[in-house]
Amino acid sequence: MTQIKSDHWASKVGVILAVAGSAVGLGNFLRFPGQVAQNGGGVFMIPYFIAFLLIGIPLGWAEWTMGKRGGQAGYNSAPGIMGYIAGLQKRSGKGWRFAGALGVLIPVMVYMYYVLIEGWCLAYAWGYLSGALNLGADANQYTAKSGDFFANITGIASDGDAVSGDNASGLAFWGVVFGLNFFLIYRGLTKGIEAFCKWAIPLMSILALVVLVRVLTLGTPNPDLPDHNVINGLGAMWNPRGTGGGSAFEALLNPQVWLAATGQIFFSLSVGFGVIINYASYLRRKDDVVLSGLTASSTNGFFEVCLGGLITIPAAFIFLGPEAAGQGTFGMGFVALPAVFAHMPAGQIFGFLWFFMLFLAAITSSLSMLQPAIAFLEEGFGLKRPQSVALLSMITLSGSGFILFFSKDLMALDTIDFWVGTFLIFVLGMLQIILFGWVWGAKEGVAYANEGAALKLPKLFIFLMRYVSPAYLLVIFVLWCYKQLPDYAKTMMKGGVPFYSMLFIGACLSALFVSVFIAGKRWDREPPHVPEDVTS
Amino acid sequence: MTTGGWISMIFSLTTMIALVTFSFYKVLFDDKGGEG
After folding, report:
1. What is the signed CA dihedral for A260, A265, A270, A276, rounded to 10 degrees?
2. A260, A35 Cβ separation under 8 angstroms
3. How far is A359 from chain B (nearest CA, A)?
4. Chain B touched by A53 (CB under 8 Å)
5. Are A52 and A355 in contact (CB under 8 A)?
6. Which string of DSSP letters, residue by residue, matches A477-525?
7. Is B14 on the interface with A (CB under 8 A)?
8. pLDDT above 60: residue A534
9. What pTM, to 2 d.p., does this model score?
10. ipTM, interface predicted TM-score of the complex
11. Which chain B residues are within 8 Å of A284, Cβ to Cβ?
12. Helices A102-130 and A142-154 sit at what angle, rounded to 10 degrees?
């Protein structure tokens, strides 16, 4: 038998905070408010909550349950777990191992660009602390200077800029966060990920609450612009309104609004990402998955709705006006908000608190992206922790270096984010819900989820997870493909960096398929050892 | 801020706060399931 290390969570709160930390990221604070403001305001929240109930929570529970079931058989990686789950009802589930390869590819490739963004957050926090990010006294220049700072950190002007001597600060922060991630991963599940998330998530909450109180007490900072006040800022976020000139009711019937709301839930909760299935595999047999899954999902929702929903858009509206609400994630987060902090009394302090909070949100997410691959290398090839960490650091260093170098217009980052961080997540999410509801069987899956559960899933969820969630996800996926794929496919066909990025993705996927094939031979020959402390 | 804005904001905030409070209460003080 393959001797693998018995690794499991030290406490229930630890695993919940680790999963919540994985889910809470920049999307909660920057993407969510922009999506609400651009897609009907308060109207957006109706499809948002429906998607939360019908897709987010059920798919999360499916991943938690399959992960725990696979862990009981000694598997911690998505290829091993998904192959094992499929084999529970069929003669062989070996084909599903290759579907599980996506559960390793997605987090690793997302890590390659996410660690860059994490470095920007730390660079901004340090910029406020050191005074390097001081936009001066001329309010008319705030946005331009903020844009210059962003261009300098990211090297967005041309390829190679981010690694040139003139822009060494961005490179330095990338190196720092890269090293910090691998240091924590090297320390292991409990001493690294769990210990870090146990203090990082509460600290993140406190920092976000401090900034929230500051924003909600801004009043009307400019008497010459009495309409630019907190209440109207909240209205810019929450007022129900039409999209494209229609009424609020028409917005509710607009497929684009439903697509945006469902996409936000799907990407925000880290479902279909390969992380939850891996984290849940470190649970013991008697551990609960239903309440833990619900708690992690609601923690993510709390950060998104109660903190992200009250800070970003109102602050931007008060100082920059209604047009600030229409910006994308990077424009809002790294250009508009620094201009907002420059306007704000004690803005240097609040700017630091905000970007350090974003850095914590980012690192608790990026840590979770490494563990699935570490698990695969260790159980698939019998590597020890130092070897798996060294190998993964070299792989991710080369990929992250590729994205760092091809920095012009963030083209490599955008291409990999679209195909891996969006398209493949939809694909893996679909495969996982089919595996749970149809291959393993929703009835068996729900019964297993209820073993040791602090909350029991009602029988209604069997129907929901077999029919409603897959159908809803499929409709959204087809609509999304219809709307998004043609433009990205055209861009890719033009050649250049998008084409190279696709080649890079293809090469990684091919290498992973070969690795899964080799690991599968090993598992067939020597099934993983099941540690007693996991099954007890 | 319109009446609809207040309603959507308060509904969204209270729903999420209630959900996170309920689930953390069950985890910390009323957990009948297994403990890791």
Report:
1. -140
2. yes
3. 23
4. no
5. no
6. HHHHHHHHHHHHHHHHHT-SHHHHHHHHHHHHHHHHHHHHHHHHHHHHH
7. no
8. no
9. 0.93
10. 0.91
11. 34, 36
12. 130
